[in-house]
Amino acid sequence: MEWEIVIGLETHTQLSTQSKIFSDSSTRYGAEPNTQANEVDMALPGSLPVLNKGAVERAIQFGLAVGAHVAPLSVFARKNYFYPDLPKNYQISQFEIPVVQGGSISFFVDGVEKTVNLTRAHLEEDAGKSLHEDFTGPHGESSTGIDLNRAGTPLLEIVSEPEMRSAAEAVAYARALHSLVVWLGICDGNMQEGSFRCDANVSVRPKGQKEFGTRSEVKNVNSFRFLERAILFEARRQIELIEDGGTVVQETRLYDADRDETRSMRSKEDSHDYRYFPDPDLPPLVIAPEWIEKVRAAMPELPRHKRERFQEKLGLTAYDAAQLTMDRATSDYFEQAAAALPPGQAKLAANWVLGEVSAALNREELDISRCPVKPVALASLIERIIDGTISNKIAREVFTAMWAGEQNGSADAIIEARGLKQISDSGAIGAMIDDVIAAHPATVDEYRAGKQKAFNSLVGQVMKAAKGKANPQQVNDLLKQKLG
């Protein structure tokens, strides 16, 4: 039987506020346990929550960015469950009326654009953290510790429709979402610190069946690589279970990266199990149109608008525009380089940013903000290609030297110091071609007999004689003339 995977993602995005969603405790990461939790976070009797305006504004930003409806009135609810790291025994969240409703995320998978619709995005507080490993109690006994530093950290939980049909699609969606929230500045995107965590709802069904299968939720996956592997394993587990005569049960599972497998954590609750009801300590959240417009006016240019501008004004392909707007730093780098070039050369700048620059950054594991070749310096190198001073091949050699800091990273100084100027004198190139033709009569005969590879071989011999410095286009044109 042929099977289809059905995937929906719930993404917990920690918002970049300095204080928590319902208290003034700091959200700084890495502090000593329980040093950033006050009476509200610890649920001491008589303490009352006060909503953080900055968290609401970040939710509004996200809603505008994905084309969603920002609710003029939304309600906070109590989600009741009982874990040691949840001191109130309920989580303040949103249920029936979330702040962000609908919207969509677009992304590319294997060069093809896909759009996934969003169900909602709602504000809520994070729980604390249970410390199980290498933790001992006051008498040296094996224990579990509770750290409430994270309790009350503002989250925007972003829920997609179950419209993804492969692990690759899910990862591309998660990357696009991650890129957007970082672009907006509403989340730092640090997955190692838990700022961006995905829950994957995975089910399988026979190809062509409309009804969804029973889903399992793989909880708190904190890397794109692990997300892909977790989905692949879980889908394979469900298919094998069904084909062996078993039944998939609705449950929450954890992904074990060391074993590359998911394992059962607990049965999966339905919404009625949480006994949601409106929080009596928090009034409805009212968002006036004027507030929305004020937030909109302060937002950066959105990736989708920048993509459109790159295509319409700079002549880039949809794919190149999408790649250049995956993150704001890369987009800014490209724009600065393109602006320093003559009009009509943006495509060349895009090729270099997505090619040599990206490859070098990946090798060094650097963010583009730490790129040693600055945008204007890259543009000066590209100009030497445009004006014929150097070839593309030589330009890559110059770029490597610029990266290493040679001649203070100046393309012109490196070209001069290394003697890399391209030979464009037709007389000098013609003389080298005559020598090559005379030295390789058999190859010349093969070309005249119709073998294109022979021509390429002769070009290679001329370039070798010129030590790579001859203008390739002139070599091609003159060689064709001389061969008749």
Short description:
With 484 residues, this protein is of the alpha+beta class. The chain has 15 helices and 17 strands.
What does this structure look like?
The chain is α+β, with helices and mostly antiparallel strands and 484 residues long. The protein has 15 helices and 17 strands. Strand 7 (104-109) and strand 8 form a beta hairpin. It is elongated, with a radius of gyration of 29 Å. It starts with a strand and ends with a helix. The model has no long low-confidence stretch (mean pLDDT 93).
Outline the biggest β-sheet.
10 strands, mixed
Ends distance? 62 Å
Bulk shape:
elongated
List low-pLDDT spans.
Answer: none
Proportion of residues in β-strands:
15-25%
The chain-level structural class is alpha+beta
Number of helices: 15
Which bin fits the share of residues in helices?
Answer: 25-40%
Rg from C-alpha positions? 29 Å
Number of E-type strands: 17
Q: Whole-number average pLDDT?
A: 93
